[in-house]
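As a next step, we paired sequence with structure tokens, yielding the entry below.
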Amino acid sequence: MEIHSKLPNVGTTIFTVIGKLANEYDAVNLSQGFPNFDTDPKLLQLVTDALKEGYNQYAPMQGSFSLRKIISEKIATLYGNTYHPESEITITAGATQAIFTAISTFIRPGDEVVVIKPSFDCYEPAIELFGGKTVPVELEGLDYSINWNKFKSAITPNTKMVITNTPHNPTGTIWSENDMVQLQEILKGTNIILLSDEVYEHIIFDGKKHESAAKYPELASRSIICSSFGKTFHVTGWKVGYCVAPNALMGEFRKVHQFNVFSANHPTQEALANYLKNPEHYLNLAQFYQEKRDYFLDAIRSSRFKMIPSSGTYFQVLDYSNISNESDTEFVERLIKEYKLASIPMSAFSLDGFTNRQIRFCFAKTNEVLDQAAEILNRI
């Protein structure tokens, strides 16, 4: 059979490649972004209760109403915007499914999608799959700031969508109020949809606040905002997320969603609806992960790596330019094979594989694992 691939240039993801190497060399693994510690026993018990109470058949296509209702209340409290739980909130099989569904719903052949680079690896294949064209805008400098003049020049009459991500994976940076205002001004008066990836919304450090697109009326009116319970509550394997959008956008989104997955895991939705009744379960997350970040950075302060402390997410970028002139992929491979420590090369997320000799580590690990990683980093 002759197969004509719709994604001819897409191979195995960097996470699979590094994960395989890490297993092969029994490396301390700070590469892929998931916690290695247990979730709250209270949440696990709520899932058990939901299973016993019979929530084992399909959830409503839109998601459990009780969960949508409490999400609406959470967003109204945090960001001052109200999304109707019946028509403007949908529970998804993880944030990645929400992002894929949003792209598949609105992108047609020839449409342009502005993507901020470095970027998470699920955006561009989905754009390509539906005939769209990625228009990349690269973040600048070691602090990964955005040049708004360059961003504005990337907007054309063919621009259908802009994808943003704050807090930002892989750089660990966040956008300020000024950034959001500039984005709002550039998109004002257009028909451009904003796909806002906000899966790390509750993981922000040093007293800073998350600038959700929901806070800005002009942005909110054109935005599909995606978030993740997996990231928030250390349960990435559950694959439960959600998205919010104005009624007109959400109506179109659900047309595709219902034939994509139809509905997400039912017992976990019921458990999450009950768990979210206590806001401390997500409001305390920033402090928890800031302690992890600080512990990791303090442990490697005597190393030869240069660092700008992460402002959000559970990722820390380290600069190895004082150590080696190797490409980041070569350096990462050598770290695994010679030192038994796994990380992710930043070029995997960047435009044309660009590297400024930086690599990404996930610090959502136990202190024991972070100590093992620090010991290795300090002797390189």
The longest helix spans residues 65-79.
